[in-house]
Structures
1.
Amino acid sequence: MLKATSALAALMTVAIAGCSSETSATKDADSGANTSASAERKEAANSAPVSTASAGPELGVFGVKTEDMDLSVAPGDDFFQHVGGKWMDSFEIPSDRSSYGSFTVLAERSEQRVRSIIEDAARANAPDGSVEQKIGDYFASYLDVDAINANGLDAIAADLSSIEAIETKADVVKAFARIDLPAAS
């Protein structure tokens, strides 16, 4: 079981009470097995309002959650443990992650919202040439696995050949300088 030991993650969580109750892995009462971390993240992403004009914070509450404090440790001896000790002992990072906190929840929520925008555009009966129609067509081509498999690597065959032709350090420099090759950021 991975425990949250990162000072930054714990301080952020203590400072804004980040998601300890919304996203921590819970135990099933009958089997003792962890519930699905993925399902919990989706639930946390779905539960937040889309409006940016909210009356309060989207994730938890601000301030120190006193129930997460470890009062057996004197604040002068180890303030970090004093303020967040119980939380650090109980919070479990989802097994498919190396870290997890409020920023992870926000990133997942943003990804879900962007996907929703794309899917709505794909479902819309948008006029030809409109941004919505272009987004819908692009998304549909992404999902067309049969066409992707049928085309194979033909679409990038020339790029692969130019990579295979690299023999010297100078060739590497030239390859990196090509503006016609897409790069992932």
Note: The CA atoms of residues 162 and 175 lie 8 Å apart.
2.
Amino acid sequence: MPHKSNCIIAVDDDRRALDQIAGILDTTYNVLTTSDLRRAVGWLHDDATVCAIISEQVLRHGRGIDLLGASLKIRPDVRRILITNYGDLAAIVGCFHTGEIQRTISKPIVAAELLGVVGPSQVSDPAGTAPQSARASATA
């Protein structure tokens, strides 16, 4: 098994969604899953290997956009991805403009789509600022 040097946090109230995310990503990353927003924030503070955080928008005890906004302040280097199938478009668009959200994916989660937004080239360039040719060569 390859050495996993980076960690991804996944936050969702749906255990099946968390298991699916972990199943897709765990061959490449250490995947920490939780439905607890405070636990996710603690991991952001305590684990320097965290390279991305993925959160469902609608949670029982908060909103994904608030968690991703907090993560921007705590660890601006961490990639921020929102999972949503709800239409809170105004709030989501506003978070793109402030940088709190960098990408969205919808449910049901498609493995190729998740890997595309969390893949090594995306994590090494979380802002998506590398020229397209540099991103393509990073995945080759």
Note: The first helix runs from residue 15 to 25.
3.
Amino acid sequence: MSKVADGFFQPLMHQLLHDAPGELSLLEQCDTRFYGHLSRSLEKLEKQTFLVELSIRERPNRLRHERVKKSPRSFADHINHPFKESSNMKRQIFVNIAVTDLAKSRAFFSSLGFSFNEQFCDDTAACLVISEEIHAMLLTHDKMKGFLPKGHEIAGPKTHEALVCLSCESREEVDRLVDKAITEGGRTFSEPQDYGFMYYRSFQDLDGHIWEMAHMDMSKIPSEEPTKAGKA
């Protein structure tokens, strides 16, 4: 029994069980039902007292854990992360691009080592799997037009709205993918760019969409030079 319950109930129990000799004890004067009710009440109160004491002891740790797990560090956290994800969700991206010949486009990207999610493939669309969270939906022109408001047209090979850049594990992977793309019918879009810490090349696929392959080595990013004496 807890210290709180002991301090309150021990004197009462002593009186109930140890009255003066020769006199009827208070316990004997109690109705059996009353004593049973009193006993159950004492047991219930003892449990409640223990739970209250336990809750008081554990509350600081529990609150600290909940603050770390559930609460943002500050209001700025909501501003800086307006699309903050739940802990069980990874946000995915699906880039929709129009292709002239779906079968040829599938063969082109398959030759680069990419796969397709057949659950989202048919005669009008193919879901290109770039990574677990990144996909490109290759859509026939008729399919793509179904998603465009009236009056909007699909951009031609000489009109570009976006450049898709994919990270690579090494400079060698950059060269391998771009070289393979050109071999399979793609076209060089720009010459290789080498900044020491970053290396990238780009190509156009069969429909003129621009794909850039880039490798970045964060350990080679140059640090800012200290301001030279005599200069502001």
Note: The first strand starts at residue 93 and ends at 99.
4.
Amino acid sequence: MSRQHTLLIFDNLETIRDRDVVLAFLYELPATVKVVVTTRERALFSPIRLLQLPADESVQLIHQEAGNKGLTLSDTEATQLYRAAGGVPAALIYAIGQLAGGYNLANVLTGLRAQDGDVARFTFEGSVAPLRGKPAHHLLMAMAMFAAPPTPQAIIHTAGLAAAPLEADAGLAQLQQRSLLTITAGRCHLLPLTHEYALAELGAHPDFEQEARARWVAWYQEFVAQYGEYPWQEWHLNHDHLEKEWDNIIAVFGWYVSTNNYALAKRLWIENQLDMFSQLYGYWDDYLACYDFLLSEAETLFLRKSSVILFVNAKVSGFYSPKQYFSKQISSSRENCF
């Protein structure tokens, strides 16, 4: 190799078992050899970090690959693929290959999100498997509960690591090193594919999920109790905090709806004056859907209290059922925010 210029490429270094042997070999190579190493881990060498493609470039890649395979996709179909794959080129190219092989779009989208699918195994299994049972894995599963990018503090609390800040920080660092999570402007972000995989991991650990769900809803009950008060001279400051977390607050209310927990839903919405906030900030669909659930449950339980009866005319006609609405809203928030 010392006699000719050579480019040597090692792909997915994190999956190689004898990594120390490989690294020793790389360091001994002559100057005529240039090496490109791809890895999800960020602690090696001088990295050039490649993030996911933005939406416009992803759609462009989809149309280009589709054209190469004799396919024609509409912009709507290309956008659906982008939202499912989250701008990961390998996943997009794989999806186009599936379409060219005769699979319909709905099945391809389902396959992209499947925990046991080819994309998930190729993209995540090697990175996640060593973390299982460790704080980093708990943080990843906790992250799956949020409808929009949360703060690190919210994830740490939900994961049950509030009393172990050093372990929590080390776990977040591990997730970032393995490109499973990014922290930008004080918010934690997952790619859509990563989020779907994390949801499946959460579902595979029901004991952890039950405990983490309790911590998750407690976090937001306390949050809205703190910022739902209205000091009239500076009410907008509290509202700013609520607006930043609105998608996650609605996700918690949606969880109460899915579990038919009227008491906690009422406490979250009415006692913290979220009805007033949602009107002032124009979240009318959320406002109506929340009251639709509260009123229907109040009628069922014969709990017609004045705080609910005042809004009897807010019942939604021709609308989704509350459970359908909140399921749709949470899915939409995740697609648009993560």
Note: Residues 303-319 have pLDDT under 50 and may be disordered.
